[in-house]
Design brief:
45% of the residues lie in helices and 17% in strands. It is an alpha/beta fold. It has a single domain, classed as Rossmann fold, CATH 3.40.50.
C-alpha cells in the first residue's frame, strides 16, 4: 500500500520573529490536524526556533521596506518557484 501524502500548508511572513511570537498557535493547530507546515520567511535570530515547532523552514529573502517594484517582481518570481517546488 502506498502511503498517503500529507496535505501541505505554507505559512509565509516577513520575519521569523513574527512566526514564533504570533503564529505558533496556528502552526500547532494545523499540525495537530495532520498538515505538513512549511514556514517561509527571511532568516533572522528566530529562524532556528521554527524547526523546534515541528515544521520545516524555507529561507526566502524579502525587502521589508517594499519600496522597489523591481525587488517586488523578483520576490514574486521567487514565490512562484517556491510554490512550484513545494506544491502546497
Amino acid at each position: 500500500m502506498t502511503p498517503v501524502a500529507r496535505d501541505k500548508i505554507i505559512v509565509s511572513i516577513n520575519t521569523s520573529w513574527n512566526v514564533v511570537n504570533f503564529r505558533k498557535g496556528l502552526i500547532e493547530a494545523l499540525r495537530s490536524r495532520g498538515y505538513e507546515v512549511v514556514v517561509v520567511a527571511p532568516r533572522d535570530a528566530y529562524s532556528s526556533l521554527i524547526a523546534a515547532m515541528g515544521c520545516r523552514y524555507v529561507e526566502l529573502d524579502m525587502d521589508n521596506s517594499g519600496t522597489s517594484p523591481l525587488r517586488d517582481l523578483v520576490l514574486l518570481w521567487r514565490y512562484w518557484r517556491l510554490l512550484r517546488r513545494e506544491r502546497p
